[in-house]
Amino acid sequence: MAEGIFRAKTAEAGIELEVDSAGTADYHVGEEPDPRAIENMRSHGIDISNLRGRQFVQEDFDRFDHIFTMDESNHLNVLRLARTEEDKAKVSMFLNSLVPGSNSPVPDPWFGGNDGFEDVFQMLSKTSDKIVEELKK
Protein backbone atom coordinates (compact mmCIF):
# COMPACT_ATOMS: atom_id res chain seq x y z
CA MET A 1 0.00 0.00 0.00
CA ALA A 2 2.79 2.41 0.89
CA GLU A 3 4.47 1.94 -2.49
CA GLY A 4 1.24 2.63 -4.37
CA ILE A 5 0.37 5.69 -2.29
CA PHE A 6 3.87 7.15 -2.47
CA ARG A 7 4.13 6.57 -6.23
CA ALA A 8 0.79 8.30 -6.77
CA LYS A 9 1.68 11.28 -4.59
CA THR A 10 5.15 11.81 -6.07
CA ALA A 11 3.74 11.56 -9.61
CA GLU A 12 1.01 14.06 -8.74
CA ALA A 13 3.68 16.42 -7.38
CA GLY A 14 5.82 15.99 -10.50
CA ILE A 15 8.64 14.38 -8.54
CA GLU A 16 10.52 11.71 -10.45
CA LEU A 17 12.13 9.03 -8.35
CA GLU A 18 12.27 5.28 -8.04
CA VAL A 19 9.87 3.80 -5.50
CA ASP A 20 9.84 0.13 -4.62
CA SER A 21 8.75 -1.97 -1.68
CA ALA A 22 10.08 -5.18 -0.24
CA GLY A 23 9.51 -7.40 2.74
CA THR A 24 12.26 -8.63 5.02
CA ALA A 25 11.04 -12.22 4.89
CA ASP A 26 10.31 -14.40 1.89
CA TYR A 27 6.71 -15.30 2.80
CA HIS A 28 5.01 -13.50 -0.09
CA VAL A 29 7.68 -13.28 -2.79
CA GLY A 30 6.00 -13.15 -6.19
CA GLU A 31 2.50 -12.77 -4.74
CA GLU A 32 0.10 -9.93 -5.45
CA PRO A 33 -1.15 -7.68 -2.63
CA ASP A 34 -3.94 -8.81 -0.33
CA PRO A 35 -7.28 -8.47 -2.18
CA ARG A 36 -8.51 -6.15 0.59
CA ALA A 37 -5.52 -3.87 0.02
CA ILE A 38 -6.18 -3.84 -3.72
CA GLU A 39 -9.83 -2.96 -3.13
CA ASN A 40 -9.04 -0.27 -0.56
CA MET A 41 -6.47 1.34 -2.82
CA ARG A 42 -8.82 1.13 -5.81
CA SER A 43 -11.45 3.00 -3.78
CA HIS A 44 -8.89 5.83 -3.50
CA GLY A 45 -8.06 5.75 -7.22
CA ILE A 46 -4.78 3.85 -6.93
CA ASP A 47 -4.17 0.53 -8.69
CA ILE A 48 -1.68 -1.77 -6.96
CA SER A 49 -2.89 -5.00 -8.56
CA ASN A 50 0.26 -5.25 -10.70
CA LEU A 51 2.66 -5.14 -7.72
CA ARG A 52 4.34 -8.35 -6.58
CA GLY A 53 6.10 -9.14 -3.33
CA ARG A 54 9.88 -9.29 -3.20
CA GLN A 55 12.43 -9.66 -0.44
CA PHE A 56 14.75 -6.85 0.62
CA VAL A 57 18.35 -7.57 -0.42
CA GLN A 58 21.65 -6.00 0.49
CA GLU A 59 21.98 -4.48 -3.00
CA ASP A 60 18.97 -2.28 -2.18
CA PHE A 61 21.36 -0.12 -0.16
CA ASP A 62 23.15 0.66 -3.45
CA ARG A 63 19.94 1.15 -5.40
CA PHE A 64 18.12 3.55 -3.05
CA ASP A 65 18.99 6.79 -1.27
CA HIS A 66 16.48 6.23 1.50
CA ILE A 67 14.92 3.08 2.92
CA PHE A 68 11.77 3.32 5.02
CA THR A 69 10.77 0.52 7.37
CA MET A 70 7.25 -0.08 8.62
CA ASP A 71 7.87 -1.59 12.04
CA GLU A 72 10.63 -2.37 14.51
CA SER A 73 11.12 -5.95 13.34
CA ASN A 74 11.56 -4.86 9.70
CA HIS A 75 13.79 -2.03 10.84
CA LEU A 76 16.14 -4.36 12.71
CA ASN A 77 16.14 -6.89 9.85
CA VAL A 78 17.13 -4.21 7.33
CA LEU A 79 19.83 -2.82 9.63
CA ARG A 80 21.28 -6.33 10.03
CA LEU A 81 21.92 -6.37 6.28
CA ALA A 82 23.69 -3.01 6.33
CA ARG A 83 27.34 -3.25 5.41
CA THR A 84 28.44 0.22 6.48
CA GLU A 85 27.38 3.20 8.57
CA GLU A 86 26.39 4.85 5.29
CA ASP A 87 23.96 1.99 4.64
CA LYS A 88 22.52 2.36 8.16
CA ALA A 89 22.09 6.12 7.70
CA LYS A 90 19.70 5.46 4.80
CA VAL A 91 17.22 3.59 7.03
CA SER A 92 14.42 5.14 9.05
CA MET A 93 10.98 4.25 10.33
CA PHE A 94 8.32 5.50 7.90
CA LEU A 95 6.09 7.18 10.49
CA ASN A 96 9.05 9.15 11.86
CA SER A 97 8.60 11.33 8.78
CA LEU A 98 5.25 12.44 10.20
CA VAL A 99 6.04 12.26 13.92
CA PRO A 100 9.83 12.57 14.31
CA GLY A 101 11.38 10.28 16.89
CA SER A 102 8.15 8.38 17.54
CA ASN A 103 9.41 5.07 16.12
CA SER A 104 5.74 4.13 15.78
CA PRO A 105 4.99 1.07 13.70
CA VAL A 106 2.56 0.98 10.81
CA PRO A 107 0.09 -1.64 12.01
CA ASP A 108 -0.48 -4.74 9.92
CA PRO A 109 -3.94 -4.17 8.39
CA TRP A 110 -4.42 -7.90 7.88
CA PHE A 111 -5.84 -8.27 11.39
CA GLY A 112 -8.14 -5.22 11.28
CA GLY A 113 -10.53 -6.20 8.51
CA ASN A 114 -11.63 -3.56 6.00
CA ASP A 115 -11.40 -0.84 8.64
CA GLY A 116 -7.78 -1.83 9.28
CA PHE A 117 -6.93 -1.31 5.63
CA GLU A 118 -8.60 2.10 5.60
CA ASP A 119 -6.86 3.14 8.83
CA VAL A 120 -3.49 2.13 7.40
CA PHE A 121 -4.29 3.89 4.11
CA GLN A 122 -4.95 7.14 5.98
CA MET A 123 -1.76 6.78 8.04
CA LEU A 124 0.37 6.05 4.97
CA SER A 125 -1.26 8.82 2.98
CA LYS A 126 -0.63 11.50 5.62
CA THR A 127 2.97 10.41 6.02
CA SER A 128 3.51 10.33 2.26
CA ASP A 129 2.12 13.87 2.03
CA LYS A 130 4.69 15.01 4.59
CA ILE A 131 7.57 13.31 2.75
CA VAL A 132 6.47 14.81 -0.58
CA GLU A 133 6.28 18.23 1.08
CA GLU A 134 9.88 17.79 2.26
CA LEU A 135 11.02 16.60 -1.18
CA LYS A 136 9.58 19.73 -2.79
CA LYS A 137 11.83 21.88 -0.59
Secondary structure elements and pairings:
Elements: H1 2-12, H2 35-43, H3 60-63, E1 67-69, H4 72-81, H5 85-89, E2 91-93, H6 113-136
Parallel strand pairs: 1-2
Task: Give a written overview of the molecule.
This protein has 137 residues and is mainly alpha-helical. It has one domain: Rossmann fold. The protein contains 6 helices and 2 strands. The chain has helices at 2-12, 35-43, 60-63, 72-81, 85-89, 113-136; strands spanning 67-69, 91-93. Strands 1-2 form a two-stranded parallel sheet. The protein is globular.
Distance between the termini: 25 Å
Q: Can you count the beta strands?
A: 2
Task: Using the alpha-carbon principal axes, give the shape.
Answer: globular
* Strand order in the sheet with the most strands: 1-2
Mean pLDDT: 95
Number of domains: 1
What is the fourth-level CATH superfamily?
Response regulator
How much strand content do the residues show?
under 5%
CATH topology annotation: Rossmann fold
User: How big is the Rg?
Assistant: 14 Å
Helix content: 40-55%
Low-confidence stretches: none
Tally of separate helices: 6
Strand-pairing-aware structural class: mainly alpha
The main pleated sheet reads as: 2 strands, parallel
Secondary-structure arrangement, i.e. CATH architecture: 3-Layer(aba) Sandwich
Element-level helix/strand string: HHHEHHEH
CATH class: Alpha Beta
